[in-house]
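Worked example 2:
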Amino acid sequence: MNYIELTINFKEVDPWRDILVSHLAEKGFESFVETKSGLQSYIPQNDFSEALLSDLGDFEAIENSNVKLIEDENWNAEWEKNFDPVFVEDKLAIIAPFHQGEFSQEMKITIQPQMSFGTGHHQTTWLASKRMFELSLEGKRVLDMGTGTGILAILAEKLGAANVYAPDIDEWSYRNAIENVALNGCTKIRVEQGDHTLLFGKEFDVIIANINKNILISHFETYSNALVNGGTLLISGFFKTDQTDLVDQASQFGFIFERIDTKEDWALIQLKLEK
């Protein structure tokens, strides 16, 4: 599959880079790489049109932007140029196969850095990873909705989950997640391609959904039906200013707010289901 790369350079990076990530994610851009002066965003060629960029002129902080085609076989080279190790405090090192050296973190996950969201570089993946270490996942049935690279599913198994279900609607993410599950020697993760309708008839103790605000709101009813009473829902992929909207919507399906964690302008919310 060919992708379109959108490169944006800012006059002032903060907070505009994070704002544009959220904005472009809602338009279908799937993967993001932070650069020194801005952002590189990626979307399948078949999903791209110039109309998606029609409102970029509304963002005065953008100095310039350009679009180019990246052919399928060039993805690894593009990512290797930009992929640095990610450290979640002293708990987790997220590395690529080409990273060398010793790491002091208590756990290591290796990710083949292809074009899937969730390498740990984004604040929301970092937040979800950190929070998972603070949960009791031993023996739990876990859902990693919109798994991307599969990193949170892999972490769930390493933290003792009995089994992990990891669907993603994107074919590239589906294939990359399967590769990364094997790369980390995981045996309790089931990766599938598809949307939230795959959850019908399934039951989980913990659901992790690092997606975006609009999709989360549309999925709350499905999550409520798939989660055991008293189960935990972790949601991320949105700004901390979205907290009220998300908690209010989730409450309509039996979810009770427990806590919010933030990193820069991004947030993770933990909810408990009380049916």
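The chain has a mean pLDDT of 89. The longest strand covers residues 227-239.
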